[in-house]
UniProtKB/TrEMBL annotation:
Protein name: Cyclic-AMP phosphodiesterase
Disordered: region residues: 273-297
Matching Gene3D superfamilies: Ribonuclease Z/Hydroxyacylglutathione hydrolase-like
Top-rank lineage group of the source organism: Eukaryota
Coiled-coil regions listed: none
Pfam assignment, any one: PDEase_II
Lineage start: Eukaryota, Fungi, Dikarya, Basidiomycota, Agaricomycotina
């Protein structure tokens, strides 16, 4: 990473992958240098206002500001500052607090960004039956609390917030009775940071090795590789299951072995990207392949040095009532596998109530 200091600050309202409704995907993001009351991006909205209310009782200083160390906010005030929601897919563990709280949101009308299918799924909820209709596509419908705002996967960044822009990339999240199901990865960029720093946030995702006919994570790694580690050094990615879960029981998610394999693919892309950029302009452009040739473990050694990988969306095993949370087990397993592979990435856990800067 460069020495310009952090570009983003994030509070983790919830980071679990179920079954506890009190700890579901929900992150509040702002530019590091701005105050919370200047505007917030809500990244996923599984857990929200209710969970935050409880967190603030334990830690009232969670949103303390640079301006005043004594400033505290209520959960509903914090959600008043939210300008937009960025949602990877419309599974309930990513949208339930958004739906429950929509009617009571204060502050200006909020945009909901995501792929077209996700917005259509939300329409199926705001349909006067499952829930009143509180959202529309019309900029002039001021009475509707939410403004549906499609993000098109066209390789471009879209400004979603002053000085923050987002590129959406579709990823696989399992197959259903009605066909393949798509989630999203977001490249989130600070346009005001001197190095235009960005980070990568994955929604729920299935390993490419399972959907080898239509791999999608490779598209994300290809975009990320040339930016690592100087422009992009922080990745949030799920690992829902502990080690040893059979492939036919993954239900569109990653396990530690699959995550390690995906990181090996990322390191391979970095290897090829650095080689082609240092090889000068005379080499003929490689024909676009779905996957670059693999390289030896020795050549991949240390290629993810400087990258911090936050593990999210671990599923707690409901049968396990005593002992450490399953999350600790999963993060430990990923860390050991990545260490053995010698990739050099730092494996961290994003936990409820954390304040993270990057
Ligand atoms: Zn999901
Ligand atoms: Zn989920």
């Amino acid at each position: 990473m460069d020495d310009y200091g952090p570009a983003f600050a994030l509070v983790c309202v919830g980071s679990g992958g179920g079954p506890l409704e009190s700890d579901l995907s929900g992150y509040l993001l702002k530019p590091y240098k701005e105050e919370w009351d200047a505007g917030i991006i809500a990244l996923e909205a599984g857990s929200g206002q209710g969970t935050l209310h409880r967190l603030l009782q334990q830690e009232p200083d969670l949103f303390k500001t640079q301006r005043s160390a004594t400033q505290t906010y209520s959960a509903s005030e914090i959600y008043t500052f939210v300008r937009c929601f960025l949602i990877t897919h419309a599974h309930l563990d990513h949208i339930s607090s958004l739906v429950i709280s929509t009617g009571s949101f204060g502050g200006p009308r909020k945009r909901v960004y995501g792929h077209k299918e996700m917005l259509e799924d939300l329409e199926g909820i705001y349909n006067w039956r499952a829930w009143p209709n509180l959202a529309s596509y019309d900029e002039n419908d001021e009475d509707f609390k939410l403004l549906y705002s499609p993000l098109v996967p066209n390789g471009k960044y879209h400004t979603v917030f002053p000085d923050i822009s987002v590129q959406i990339v579709p990823i696989n999240h399992g197959t259903t009775d009605v066909g393949p199901y798509s989630s999203s990865a977001f490249f989130i960029r600070s346009d005001s940071h001197p190095s235009k720093r960005e980070f990568l946030f994955f929604g729920d995702v299935e390993p490419d090795s399972i959907t080898s006919a239509t791999p999608k994570i490779i598209d994300v790694w290809r975009k990320a590789a040339p930016m690592i580690p100087n422009t992009l050094s922080t990745i949030f990615i799920e690992c829902s299951w502990p080690s040893g879960r059979p492939d036919d029981m993954l239900h569109g998610h990653l396990s530690p072995e699959h995550l390690r394999d995906e990181l090996v693919v990322l390191a391979t892309e970095i290897y090829h990207s650095r080689r082609s950029s240092s090889g000068g302009g005379s080499r003929p452009k490689r024909k676009r392949q779905k996957r670059n040739p693999s390289v030896s473990a020795d050549e991949l050694r240390g290629l993810l040095t400087g990258v911090r990988i936050y593990i999210i969306h671990c599923k707690e095993q409901s049968t396990q009532v005593e002992g450490p949370p399953t999350r600790e087990l999963i993060v430990g397993q990923v860390r050991a596998l990545v260490q053995t592979a010698g990739l050099g990435a730092e494996i961290l856990s994003a936990e409820q109530g954390m304040y993270i800067t990057f």
